Amino acid sequence: LTKGKKHILEHNGFVLVFPDKKYYDIKNGKFGKMDASYTVTGAAFKDGKLTSPEKKYVTKQEEKSESVLSDDFLLCYENVSTSTGEAVVSGYSKKQPKDVTPGTIYKNGCLPNEYKITDSIVQGEDGVWLLKIRLITVINEYDGLFSDFRPGDYVQIENCLKEENNGIFEIESISKSEITFSDKTFTEATESGSVTISRKIPDFSSVCLYENRLWGISENIIYASALGDPFNYYTFKGLSTDSFTVTSNTAQPFTACIAYTNSCMFFKEDGTYKLFGSRPSNFQLIKSFGGGVESDASDSIVATASSVMYKGIGGVYSCFGGVPVCISEKLGAMKMKNACAGSDERRYYIAFDDESGKRRLFVYDIDGALWSVYGETDITAFIHSGGALYTIRKDGIYTFSDEPDKDALWSITLQPLNEGYYGKKAYCRLKLNVKM
After folding, report:
1. CB burial class (10 A; 0-12, 13-18, 19+) of residue 14?
2. In angstroms, rounded to a whole number, what is the distance separating the alpha carbons of residues 415 and 10?
3. What is the mean pLDDT, run by run of 10 residues, along the chain of 436 residues?
């Protein structure tokens, strides 16, 4: 994975990672890329088939170090050809290490599709010579061609000179070097140049799951995957299983999304949007005004049993019934940057960087509508699982506990009480004014 903030979720047996567009197949224990792209030279189109040449040989190189004895011989050559898939050499000679120069081709210890080139050679101790080399390996670039595609994928074909063969088409089956689409998809042609076949995934900045689809936002566009399939976003056949996309009527980008009760919610900095429905034909996006999610605070959004809570430009908001209400007035105009949050259904925990750059943790009691200050922290993420709230910190993963801290001692000093006047009365309550 690349460095930076991630959005990770699980859908139908796949752990999906954004914005990297990587996946982990839980059942098969396989890692892979969600998107896939192949560039083919000389592709042939006929009826519903795209056929690629089976072989395209290229070389890859790896820097290595070797040592040889002074009386050993290197099997050296003047020329090498890789056009057949093997390293075919000519101009043979045997050389001792002292006679080898940079750029010498040799085949000691090589497979048929390998050869070595010396970059430098230095005499060491005890009759040992040290060589820095490049190991050159000939590979067939078309081995495993189309292996990341699956039947049912919608792929985009581009760069065909025969224009009618460009477009988005559904794969019916795949063989080693051939993809079959529906009959009469293509106009017969053989392309002399390069053709690209790709399964594209939008560049999502935030994702969530709703109605067995993966939903994501990219700038001011909302995307939904095909039903149950997080790998396809461009299936438009007029079916209930199709993917779905809608563009907002304002240019401001979306900042976050989350599934909540019977709807999916999308946020911009200046407003909230609710999407209702169960299939593309009845999806409806309805805008509500009010504070949305701040651009750098997508990790602060949490759905509790009663509302959706998040960090907006004006503070921390609780959104119930589509109406956001600021709940952080008592905190004043405190700046909260790089916020992340979590909830155990009773409390809303939010960690953020304050004006001085210190990272702090505040907790909001949802039922009591009270804020508590937990102090400085290094929490970077929260996750609620199995009834417990977990946090990620620099030195590990932690959870919060409701068990009392038996090692914490406390005391309180009260004003003197005169029993003379209250001698015949019983205490029923004690009122305290406490300054923390």
Report:
1. buried
2. 58
3. 89 94 94 92 91 87 92 92 91 91 93 94 88 93 84 93 92 90 90 93 93 93 94 91 90 91 87 87 83 89 89 90 85 88 92 92 92 91 88 91 73 67 65 75
